[in-house]
Amino acid sequence: MFLYNLGIHAFKLGLQLASPFNPKAKLWLQGRRNWEENLRAKVKSIGLENAVWFHCASLGEFEQGRPVIEKLKKENPQQKIVLTFFSPSGYEIQKNYPFADLVAYLPADTPSNANTFLAILKPRLAIFVKYEFWLNYLFELDKQHIPTFLISTVIKKHQSFFKWYGGNFRRALATYKTIYTQDVYSIKLLRVLKVGTGVLAGDTRFDRVLQICSAPKKIKEIEDFAKDSFVIIAGSSWQKDEDYLIESYVRLKEKHPNLKLIIAPHEIDKKNIDRLCNLLVKNKLAFHLFSDNPPSYTDAILVINAIGFLSSVYQYGTIAMIGGGFNGGIHNILEPTVYGLPVIFGPNYKKFNEAFEVIDLNVGFVVEDADQLTNQLSVLIDNTETLTESSRLAKNYVLKNSGATNKIVDGLRAFL
Q1: Structural domain boundaries enclosing 53
Q2: Are residues 142 and 181 in the same domain?
Q3: What is the CATH number of the domain that holds 367?
Q4: Which of 153, 220, 276, 387 is the most exposed place for a label (fewest CB within 10 A)?
Q5: In this structure, are residues 302 and 288 in contact, taking their beta carbons and an 8 Å threshold?
Q6: Residue 337 has what pLDDT?
Q7: Could you tell me if 282 and 407 lie in one domain?
Q8: Are residues 109 and 167 in the same domain?
Q9: Number of domains forming the structure of the chain
Q10: DSSP state of 108
Q11: How far apart are CA 42 and CA 49, in angstroms?
Q12: Which of 15-24, 152-161, 207-216 has the lowest mean pLDDT?
């Protein structure tokens, strides 16, 4: 544990050094300032003892924990919920989340912070989402006999549990009362580690996207823009995704005059939006920015330079190109598939089980460059039967894999 704790302190020091130049590092530090005093005050004023504590790394993990939080809260409105985040990108967007009685940053994982945090909060139980293995918190929870659960997780052979230095991480796995996994392979790997608390539940994100799809946010301007058109939506796109998509669009648009693009970049800061706009201008493509808010979008390309509603924008699409496949990894492919959109993405998808599954179903298609993207788009545009069948399979895929939330909540009830 000495090296682990040293690493935590080194990480904090690195953030302090970076904070004058890095806004996220600055938020990370500011959000944890006076955390002990603030937590004591909240616990006293709201009465948060015996709360159910959920911890998520960031926004993606929150979307996996969210269906469980909301089901627990709806079943028992009096149950207090505390939600913590590690990352500013999760906290800043969800700090006013209405189903939590307190939203806060998780204090750095030092022995003293873990002890103090739990001594103040005294949670009824703790629920960690997906990949959260903060050793000092887990060992302190175990020491205080607070039931702790891991939900929507995936165990993989490259993780620390299987390394020569992973003894403490293996010991941390044993502190969870139940580990709810997304897949059977994770259960098998847990057994290799001699951890018998794994339960196959599935991925709660399927429940979340179905929840969104059942009552999507209506955006009339985009609905009018997409009407009677073949609409490709680039979701959470990065530069390489956009380069290839725009090159393909230029090739295809003369043959397909009703072809339209909605581009929702992963980063919407001014520098990145200006870069994308310059790329469109360079290719002599007329476009609108969503923020321009004109009476109607008359051009064939719409750039979404705002956050918070991409999951609802997908309802107006025909095909989705998922960003990140030419960078660190693809983004959420379930948000478009729930609406029946086939998905196209780059080659960096190996970390995501659902990517392999949609590829096998002919719902997901991998492309390496603009040529392959153009060919794949042409197949889907020109062959109505292929597109219709992919759309049907996409919807069925999400429905078939739903239900994880109910399985998890059924298991938690005995501890509430």
Answers
A1: 2-203+403-415
A2: yes
A3: 3.40.50.2000
A4: 220
A5: yes
A6: 97
A7: no
A8: yes
A9: 2
A10: P
A11: 10
A12: 15-24
Task: Give the HSE-up count for residue 270: Cα atoms under 13 Å, Cβ half-sphere.
Answer: 0
Burial class (CB in 10 A: 0-12, 13-18, 19+), 123: buried
**In this predicted structure, what is the pLDDT of residue 26?**
85
Question: Does 295 score more than 80 pLDDT?
Answer: no
Residues 6+ apart with CB under 8 A from 74: none
Q: Can you state the angle between helices 23-31 and 2-18, rounded to 10 degrees? A: 120
- pLDDT at 194 exceeding the cut of 80: yes
Backbone angles phi, psi at 295, to 5 degrees: -60, -35
Residue 287, token pair as written in the block: 């476009």
* Residue 186 and residue 66 share a domain: yes
Q: What is the CATH classification number for the domain harbouring 77?
A: 3.40.50.11720
d(CA 301, CA 217): 21
Please indicate, yes or no, whether residues 175 and 52 belong to a single structural domain of this protein: yes
d(Cα 101, Cα 79) in Å, to the nearest integer?
9
Amino acid at 120: I
Tokens 């393909």 belong to residue: 248
Contact 339, 358 (CB under 8 A): no
Cα radius of gyration (the chain): 23
Distance between terminal CA atoms of the chain?
A: 32
Mean pLDDT (whole number) for 242-247: 96
Residue owning tokens 């873990």: 114
- 108 contacts: CB under 8 Å, gap ≥ 6: 8, 11, 12, 32
Out of 5-19, 106-120, 386-400, least confident range: 5-19
Q: What is the mean pLDDT of residues 328-356?
A: 93
Q: What mean pLDDT comes out for the span 386-400? A: 95
Q: How far apart are CA 226 and CA 246, in angstroms?
A: 18
d(CA 359, CA 355): 6
Mean predicted lDDT score pLDDT of the chain: 92
Q: Is residue 211 part of a domain?
A: no
Q: Measure Cα distances from 91 to 105, 220, 333, 337 in Å.
A: 7, 30, 23, 27
Of 185, 155, 184, the residue nearest 172 (C-alpha):
155
3-state secondary structure 23-66: HHHHHHHHHCCCHHHHHHHHHHHHHCCCCEEEEECCHHHHHHHH
Q: How far, in Å, CA of 414 to CA of 102, rounded?
A: 24
- Same domain for 119 and 33, yes or no, is yes
How far is the C-alpha of 119 from the C-alpha of 111, rounded, in Å?
Answer: 12
Q: Are residues 356 and 378 in the same domain?
A: yes
